[in-house]
Amino acid sequence: MAAACARSGRDPASVALVAVSKTVPSERLRLALAAGFDRLGENRVQEAADKIPALGSAEWHLVGHLQKNKAARAVELFDVIESVDSLALAVRLDRLLGEGRLSSRTRLPVYLQVNVDADPAKAGFDPAQLEAQLGAFLDLARLEVRGLMTVGWLRSGGIEARHTFIRLRELSDRLQGADGRLGSGLSMGMSDDYEMAIEEGSTLVRVGRALFGERPPTA
Ligand SMILES: *Cc1c(COP(=O)(O)O)cnc(C)c1O
To answer: Of the residues 20, 43, 214, which should be mutated to test ligand 1's pocket, given the most ligand atoms within 8 Å of the CB?
Structure first.
């Protein structure tokens, strides 16, 4: 990460790391926390519910699709939800927060997930749809929209992923220009492409396998 920052003239402090710990057992995560990892990412609410109460003391990010019927549990467990992919979900999160399920904070940080290149394998908003609905997200008083999130072309690691990241940055610039309430965060980059994502402006990389090793094939 530091090398990618140096190559692109960026301050290393401007890029944060989420260690994506899905499928990694709690015993190993205890070691990761002891080693100084302070942001962990999970993609399933149930798995997170088994781990978070026992491990505590990290900033927990939800990076996977959130079903509406798990939204209440997610609000209790996670510090940041990176995978908001519909207005209905955002409205539900905002309402749950209003019902007082959020003890210590006033606004829940979220990212809006964008499918910038209409990849059928990925979740997220179509850019035009997001542009049309942006004001409605930013009106939700209990959500802090930190920025946009995307997934590169899976495991391509090549030019296609770079284009995805460039498009997300350009979309973010344009939407921030249209509505100054949108945060400037860009969550992009995974094990195979985080360096490229940093070169293209990522502020948050989500890295799993490069830290913890390959996951079991079913995960
Ligand atoms: C699993 C996952 C990651 C981490 O992927 P790696 O290839 O293991 O680095 C990042 N983001 C999301 C949304 C994921 O589901």
So the answer is: 20
DSSP bridge partners of 98: none
Per-position b or e across 145-155, b if 16+ CB within 10 A of its CB:
bbbbbbbbbee
Task: Render pLDDT for 12-64 as a digit per residue (tens, 0 to 9).
Answer: 999 999 999 999 999 999 999 999 999 999 999 999 999 999 997 899 999 99
CA dist 154 and 156 (Å) reads 5
At 140-149, the pLDDT tens digits run: 999 999 999 9
The number of beta carbons lying within 10 Å of the beta carbon of residue 127 is: 20
Alpha carbons 211 and 15: distance in angstroms, whole number: 17
**Ligand 1 pocket test target in 21, 43, 45, 156 with most atoms within 8 Å of CB:** 43
| 3-class DSSP assignment, residue 166 | helix
